[in-house]
Write a structure and sequence with these properties.
alpha/beta; Rossmann fold; 2 domains; 18 helices
Length: about 400
């Protein structure tokens, strides 16, 4: 049994089953996420796709986007719908695949599976097979489907790497994928992750968008493309859910990709190279609220770190030439940049005070370095700047629930 942030995978699945069991059996209930036919229209489904879908399927729709925007299902395709729910996407896929095609409808929730079977019968669809299971262990043979579709489900899965590996496994070479899912711009805090209910509401199980795409590429998928991003949680009836989603930068994304006919041996290496790029590292630092702290530490290191190295070399009898003008310029540039980096987190914790305090510290440092050198003023300035950065980091972590 694998623990996820203080509770087990089984507890997450139980919370998901409870939530979506209610969506199946009490579709008129108000949930913290949009449901029903109105949710279909809000998430981007054209009326033409919804024609002929039984009302009992539409009433329990709980998707987060319109994966069919990818337009990848062809007549005769064998399609896997992961998280089929009450059957809206399954029935649309069955129509697109045609009588020569087949749709395998996979779902975890017993109530949804029962409703799905009834809706298939109501629609008179003969090319659909219902399967009980979850995305982490898909009960299908290797290379057995042409297309995988999923809508608002993978963010609910604890082990997304395992789910993506399963999708890769069941796809035939050249197979295609269309996904609508929830992604975030900032990391989810441990406090929020420890609430299984928030997992079931599509908020805290989501990954940072760039990490999500990187994980898909690492699984071997090619031509990963984001077709659309939009604010899904603006339609939530819960102010608390909207607040949490806003703090995390949560949004819905529609993606498409394919399984190459020949797997690339350089996929993993390329993924590591992307992670080590300075721009990528800076973006990750900003998403995790570290940018202000890192810039402040960099300015201190530029000043005292260089001085420590030169002193150590001199102690060993080695001479090191330092361009004083260049050294001063680097210190000044990093110090001036630090308050701007601190202001980056204001959009999350809504408090300008750390950036203003950091700016005061930066002014002291710049005065000591550029106008009238005084090591005491310089040290006080760096201390104020570092204190502001740690304060900013604390407010960021509190805002996102760490």
């Amino acid at each position: 049994m694998v623990a996820i942030a203080g509770f087990t995978r089984e507890q997450i699945f139980a919370a998901v089953q409870q939530m979506y069991g209610e969506v199946a059996t009490a579709p008129l209930k108000q949930f913290h996420f949009p449901t029903g036919r109105s949710a279909c229209l809000f998430t981007g489904y054209p009326e033409t796709l919804l024609e002929g879908i039984p009302a009992t399927a539409l009433e329990s729709f709980a998707g987060v986007g319109c994966p069919f925007r990818a337009g990848i299902i062809r007549p005769g395709d064998r399609v896997l719908d992961i998280g089929a729910g009450s059957g809206t996407d399954t029935l649309i896929a069955a129509r697109l695949a045609g009588p020569q095609g087949r749709v395998l409808a996979l779902d975890l929730t017993p109530q949804m599976l029962g409703k799905l079977r009834c809706n298939i019968a109501l629609a008179g669809a003969s090319n659909i097979e219902v399967i009980a299971g979850n995305a982490e262990a898909i009960p299908l043979l290797d290379a057995s489907v042409d297309v995988v579709t999923s809508n608002g489900v993978l963010n609910l899965v604890p082990d997304k790497g395992r789910a993506f590996a399963e999708i890769w496994r069941v796809l035939r070479p050249g197979g295609r994928v269309q996904i609508a899912d929830i992604v975030v711009s900032r990391p989810v805090g441990d406090k929020a992750r420890k609430d299984p209910k928030l997992w079931a509401e599509c908020v805290v199980g989501a990954m940072i968008e760039e990490d999500y795409v990187d994980l898909l590429r690492s699984a071997g998928f090619g031509e990963v493309e984001i077709l659309r991003n939009y604010d899904y949680f603006s339609a939530s009836s819960s102010s608390e859910t909207r607040k949490i989603a806003g703090a995390l930068g949560a949004k819905a994304a529609e993606l498409t990709m394919h399984k190459p006919v020949v797997a690339s041996s350089g996929t993993a290496r390329h993924g590591w190279m992307r992670w080590l790029r300075p721009v990528h590292l800076a973006r990750r630092a900003a998403r995790h609220g570290h940018l202000g702290l890192m810039t402040s530490l960099a300015s201190i290191a530029a000043c005292y770190g260089v001085l420590a190295v030169v002193s150590a070399l001199a102690f060993m009898g080695l001479a090191a030439a330092v361009d004083t003008l260049l050294w001063t310029a680097v210190i000044a540039a990093l110090t001036a940049l630090a308050p701007l980096a601190l202001a980056w987190n204001v959009g999350v914790h809504r408090n300008m005070a750390p950036a203003l305090v950091g700016a005061a510290g930066a002014v002291l440092v710049l005065y000591a370095v550029l106008a009238r050198y005084d090591w005491r003023i310089e040290a006080i300035g760096f201390g104020v700047l570092l204190g502001a950065a740690l304060w900013d980091r604390h407010l960021f972590r509190r805002a996102i629930g760490c």
